[in-house]
Amino acid sequence: MTDITCAFEIRSIIGECPIWSPAERRLYWLDLRRPAVYRFDPASGRNETLPARLRDYVGGLVMRAKGGCIIDKDDGIFAYDPASGEIEPLVHPETGRADTWFNDAKCDRAGNLWAGTGDRGEAAPLGSLYRFKPDLSWQRIDTGIICSNGPAFSPDGRVAYFTDSYARQIYAYDITPETGHVGPRRVFAEVPEDNVYPDGMTVDAEGYLWNAQWDGWRVVRYAPDGRIDRTIKLPVPRPASVAFGGNDLSTLYVTTASFGMSEAEIKAAPLSGSLFALKPGVRGLPEPAFAG
Q: What are the beta bridge partners of residue 263?
C-alpha cells in the first residue's frame, strides 16, 4: 500500500500541470480556472502564488531553457516571467478562433513544445495537437480532439502519449527522433468506465506511464505495452495531473480539482483541489525545458 499525504491543502478549482524545477527545488503548478501560477516548496511546505497577468484562464506551463517559463492560454503560446508576472505572446496557430483554447503542455526530449487545443464547450471535436519547434515554427500533429490532455514522452523520446479525455482513450504516437517524423495515433490504453476520464500524465525512469483519472479517485500506472501495472486510490475523486519531483525525483505529486462538485461531494472529499504527494517506489525523469 502506498502512503499518500496532502502536501498542501487548498481548494483549487482545477489544479493542473505540475512540473518540477530542479534548479529551484520547487514544484510549479496551476489553477486553470482561478487562474493562478503556484510554486510549492516541499522543504517548508509553503505554496507561493506567483505574479501572473493571466486574465481568466491558463492551460499549461513548462520551463524554458533560457529562463522563465512558457505558458499556453486561450489565445496562444506565451513567454512568462515568474518574477514580474509579465507575459509575452509568441505564437498562436488558431488566431481568430473563439471556440477553442489550449489545455496542458509538455516538452519532448528534443526540447520541442507539445500542446493541444480543445472545444471551450467540451462537446465538439474542434481541437488539435501541435508541436512547436524552438524557432516557433509549428506542426499540427492530430485533429478531432474535444479535450486535450497529457502529453508525456518515453525515456528514449520515441513515443509521445496524449489523450482526448472525453474519448476515454490514451493515444501513442511513434516519433523518429533523427528526423522528427511523427506517426499516426494508435490507441495505447482505454478507460472502460463511462464516467471516468484520463487526464494529465508523466513517464517514470522505467518507461511506465502514470495517468491521473478524473472522477476515478485514482492514479494508474501503465506498462509500455499498455497493460495496467498498478492502481493507486486517492482520497479525492478528481485528480487532474501528476509529476515526479523532489531532489531525487522519487515523489509523485498529484494535482486535483474541485470543479463542478456539489456541497455534498465536497463534504465527502474535503481535500478536493489540494496537492498530494506519494512515494511509489520508482523515480521520475527530469522534464525537458523548451529549447526556444
A: none
Q: Which domain holds residue 151?
A: 4-278
Q: Nearest-CA neighbor of 224 among 243, 251, 206?
A: 206
| Through-space distance between the first and last CA atoms of the chain, rounded to whole angstroms | 42
State the Cα–Cα distance between residues 249 and 247, nearest whole angstrom.
Answer: 6
Catalytic residues: 199
Q: What is the pTM of this model?
A: 0.97
Q: 45 — alpha (psi -120 to 50), left (phi > 0) or beta? A: left
DSSP 76-138: EEEEE-TTT--EEEEE-TTTT-SSEEEEEEEE-TTS-EEEEEEETTSSS--EEEEEE-TTS-E
Predicted pLDDT of residue 2: 78
Instruction: Give yes or no for a contact between 131 and 138, defined as CB atoms under 8 angstroms apart.
Output: yes
Distances (CA, A) of 107 to 64, 160, 266: 10, 10, 34
**213-241 tens-digit pLDDT:** 999 999 999 999 999 999 999 999 999 99
Instruction: Evaluate whether residue 289 is within a structural domain.
Output: no
CATH of residue 28: 2.120.10.30
User: What's the CA gap between 47 and 274, in Å, rounded?
Assistant: 11
Residue 98 belongs to some domain of the structure: yes
The domain total for the chain is 1
Asked if residue 290 belongs to a domain, the reply is: no
| 195 belongs to a structural domain | yes
